[in-house]
Design goal:
elongated; five-stranded mixed beta barrel
Length: 208
């Protein structure tokens, strides 16, 4: 199985790229987020790979970071969600936004992705609610580009994590705490402070 590739970017298209590794060109498909973070053709590049083996094909999928790859694996574990749909979701939502949407059971956000209907979106947020908890507190890796780094709201992420931690310390389950804080942040905005998020999340939990 191929898990990672380092080489020279040969070319790229709307949903694919080719990496030259020692004279061998590997084609891999990726989200718009991953492809948008790639350097110009002829420059060095390194990407994480998920290899999918089927009876009639071996297909490579490229990811800028492990977090996106892990979410791809989770998404494709849901019935009715293939690789193409998973990449569409990862193109529409950043890993952080997707985790928050699942934790908050926000099927509307997930259904914004191309090819994702209400039924599939509902299945995704329902089946993955407990599974995204293990990804929430993973440290962020080094961003692949300055543009990608600017897209990350680090203040909001820190406040969310601190608010979730506070609720867990009060005895709430991590998945319930994260869902409540995510819903509170949707209402209050990404710039909400921990002091504002905690009471709002507690209110969310009280009406569940």
């Amino acid at each position: 199985m191929i898990a990672k590739l380092k080489g020279i970017l040969d070319s790229a298209g709307e949903d694919w790229l080719i990496i030259d590794v020692g004279g061998v060109g590997y084609i891999a498909h990726g989200s718009s987020r991953t492809l948008g973070s790639m350097p110009r053709a002829g420059e060095a590049v390194g990407i994480h790979i998920e290899t999918v083996v089927r009876e009639d094909a071996i297909t490579l999928y490229a990811f800028a970071d492990i977090e996106e790859r892990d979410l791809f694996r989770l998404l494709t574990s849901v019935q009715g969600v293939g690789a193409k749909v998973a990449l569409a979701i990862l193109s529409a939502l950043s890993p952080t936004d997707l985790q928050n949407a699942i934790a908050a059971q926000d099927k509307t956000a997930v259904s914004r992705a191309k090819g994702v209907g209400p039924k599939v979106a509902t299945r995704i947020v329902t089946e993955l609610k407990d599974k995204v908890t293990g990804l929430i507190f993973k440290p962020k890796g080094v961003q692949v580009s300055q543009a990608a780094a600017s897209d990350q709201n680090m203040g909001g992420n820190a406040a969310l994590a601190d608010a979730v931690s506070a609720l867990v310390n009060l005895g709430y389950k991590p998945v319930d705490a994260h869902g409540a804080v995510a819903r509170a942040m949707n209402d209050l905005g990404e710039d909400a402070s921990v002091d504002a998020l905690v009471p709002a999340a507690l209110k969310e939990l009280s009406i569940l």
